[in-house]
Amino acid sequence: MREKGETVVLIILTAVLVIASVWILCMKKTKESIYLFGLCFSLMLEICGVMIFIAKKGGISDEVMHFFYISRAIRNKIQFFLITLNQMGFLVALGRTLFPLFLIEMAMCYSMVGFIRKSIWLPKAAAVLPLLTLVLYFPPIYRGMTESNLGVYRILGKWTVGWITCYLIAAVALLLKEFTEITMKFCRRQFSMIVICLCSLLGIYCLYYRQDPGQIYHFYEYSIAGNSGIGYLQVKPSLLSYITLVATSVICCMLGFFSFFRYAQGNYESSREDIVMARKFDTAKVGVSMFAHGMKNQLLSSRVIYKRIGQLYEQPQVDTVQLKEYIDTLERINQTMLLRMEELYRSVKMNAIYMVPVRMGEIVDETLQRFHQKYPQVTVRVDVDPDTMVLSDKTHLCGALNNLLINAQEAIAAADRGDDGELSFLCHNERLYTVIEVRDNGIGLSKSKAKKIFEPFYSSKNSNFNWGMGLYYVREIVKSHLGSIRVESKEGEGSSFFILLPKY
Predict the structure, then answer these.
(1) Burial label, 217 (beta-carbon count in 10 A; 0-12, 13-18, 19+)
(2) Are residues 216 and 126 in the same domain?
(3) Of 139, 155, 379, 425, which cross-links 86 as Cys (Cβ 3.0–4.6 Å)?
(4) 295 inside domain
(5) Between the CA of residue 443 and those of 454, 490, 494, 496, what are the distances in Å?
(6) Cβ contacts of residue 223 below 8 Å, gap of 6+?
(7) pLDDT at 55
């Protein structure tokens, strides 16, 4: 039995996409969010226009009616909806014409092709054909052109389908090219969501874009009314073609909705992360008093040990072994306090960032020099173009990278890799970023720990020796360089930290 209302899902999901795109637009006003909203809105305009047209036309078969409406009552309401042919035709023209424009603009926005990226006029030139089409399909102008010569109607229809098809192919080609050239897994995952979403919307659009607004304008002219429309409006579809049509629409809708949700979720989490971190740091200020209390306890412990050393000297025979243990303990306590004070100092000092163009070769040399002061015997594999330029505060950036290298080496030591330990310092350019990667084959991180490691005062190590400010410091330094930091990790296999800095 053929169920009714399949495409109600299509309409509902399209409306949800519009609402979601408005939400993204309000949350993050970027070119991409504007184009995404335009895509969803124009697609909804086209679908609504086609639905109204089919209802006014009366339909060809029950299958078509069932495909578009829940019930005959809803069909009747739409059929008698007050709208003129001019308004209905231009509604379809708007949705049909604007969709490929927003799609190609979005594809060019994501594209890293040199001449597209640098061109100022190309996005403006792409709008010429759609705007010209809208002008030609504006009811008074269109009727004036086709009133005496219906051949213009056919020429305009073929010309419109031609440039729309070219725009769609070019947009898909640019998106797929960009997707295949992304090497970082987390970037590829995020970009794949938007590619799937766009291709799903495109799949739905392709079902309806051949509906010529001219057929609607000339609703009562027999020579036009019977052609130039969507294929399944002209003849009664077979069961197979009907099922294919329904399945294609539903699959595209579900894929589009799911991928859009994941994309929106990624954007939301990205924007929310900074807010959460700021709140956690505000809360963590309270923790400063706790650490001050901890420092006080350390000093009291030192005081106790000093008293014990004094008691040893009061004895006739000094126990040198015990004395050495006390001295070693004092050294450890003092070292711990110095490290904590250094971390706190760095977290305060990092407010002053002075960025200048620096060669990656200089950054690598200074970072490794600092690292080898603590681990002189450890070999670091370096794959960096020394002539790559980055805009940075060399002192702070090297400090952050040194912190990542030390953490990576500690992870390798914890995994007891021995001679099989691998510590890598890598750098390459990708899209708009210079990517610096610190990679190890240490113990790795669980998903729960990976989400927390950049939080202030979080540490999975011994809290007596670690404040948990190291990676927070790294994150803040990267943020102050207008960049971002990501981690990819698997327990037992190792971790990779990616610093993404704007390409200089």
Answers:
(1) buried
(2) yes
(3) 139
(4) no
(5) 18, 8, 6, 12
(6) 150
(7) 73
Residue type, 182: I
Q: Which residues of 181-204 are buried (b: 16+ CB within 10 A; e: fewer)?
A: ebebeebeebbebbbbbbbbbbbb
Task: Please tell me whether residues 169 and 43 are part of one structural domain.
Answer: yes
- Which amino acid, 212? D
Write the CB contacts of 350 (distance below 8 Å, at least 6 apart in sequence): 396, 473, 476, 477, 480
Q: Which sign, positive or negative, has the C-alpha torsion 395, 399, 400, 401?
A: positive
Closest by Cα among 379, 383, 436, 376 to 412: 379
pLDDT digits (tens, 9 = 90+) for 63-81: 555 555 556 676 677 777 7
470-480 helix and 239-314 helix, angle to the nearest 10 degrees: 120
Q: Which domain holds residue 372?
A: 352-502
pLDDT in tens, 198-221: 888 898 888 888 888 888 887 766
Is there a single domain that holds both residue 76 and residue 215?
yes
Give me the residues paired with residue 389 across strands.
359
What strand order describes the sheet that includes 381-383?
381-383, 423-430, 433-440, 494-502, 484-490
Number of independent structural domains in the chain: 2
The low-confidence residues of the chain, meaning pLDDT below 50, are 1-7, 275-287, 289-290, 462-465, 467
Q: Which pLDDT does position 6 carry in this prediction?
A: 40
d(CA 389, CA 397): 13
Q: Which runs of consecutive H residues, i.e. helices, occur in 315-353? A: 320-349
* Last-in-domain residue among 222, 240, 271: 271
Contact assessment for residue 469 and residue 454, using Cβ atoms and an 8 Å cutoff? no
In a domain, 296, yes or no: no
- Contact predicate 374/339, CB 8 Å: no
Supply the angle between the helices 360-374 and 394-414 in degrees, to the nearest 10.
Answer: 50
Whether 302 is covered by a domain: the verdict is no
The Cα 470–Cα 273 span in angstroms is 18
Last residue of a domain, one of 224, 240, 271: 271
Question: Which alpha helices (DSSP H) does 182-238 contain, by range?
Answer: 185-208, 213-217, 222-225, 231-234
Task: Give the CATH number of the domain where residue 174 resides.
Answer: 1.20.1070
C-alpha 248: how far from chain center: 27
